[in-house]
Amino acid sequence: GENVEQHPSTLSVQEGDSAVIKCTYSDSASNYFPWYKQELGKGPQLIIDIRSNVGEKKDQRIAVTLNKTAKHFSLHITETQPEDSAVYFCAASIGSGGGADGLTFGKGTHLIIQP
Amino acid sequence: NAGVTQTPKFQVLKTGQSMTLQCAQDMNHNSMYWYRQDPGMGLRLIYYSASEGTTDKGEVPNGYNVSRLNKREFSLRLESAAPSQTSVYFCASSEAEQVKRGNTIYFGEGSWLTVV
Description:
The structure holds two protein chains of two kinds. Chain A has no helices and eleven strands. By secondary structure, chain A is mainly beta. In chain B, strands 2, 4, 5, 6, 9, 10 and 11 form a seven-stranded mixed β-sheet that branches. The N and C termini of chain B lie far apart (35 Å).
């Protein structure tokens, strides 16, 4: 099955600086890569996603890049703000074959924005 | 706009007790999921239901059963709770049958379960 590795597990950046979180996946058949933000005591919420036919996608201060050859994708947050502090999860659609079988998640990155 | 609603929010069980976590979505989604979240482990899929009337095992199904009661509701049952099942449980739903088609998964707010 699919395996998703996420780094770093904790990231501390100064307010206003950029943050980058990286993920790798194992199954070359995966074709959908969402990123979720989870605030304390809440469920994960989708912030951006990318499909395998696109190399980069941007939404205001957030961007995601995908390298299919290397099987890795990254989340970039620019001009970080205190409200960006949260746990971020990357995910990939599970391998080949049929079935509606959800997503495989990375283990999460705790992003801390220092004032 | 409720989205995905789970109950209860918090529960403490004794080892060996049974309980059911309830989940309902009001987005007319076909697929529903149950995940558990443990420190350092991320989110792991327990069971999913591609459409009404079908259920399938995910990554960590042992010790759990599910029921897709109708299109809106998907319940998770612990028949004989064990301390290893202490976790945060998230119900989720998505529009299409296959997440690989790139359909967003929407999560509920979570259910905190402690087994003592």
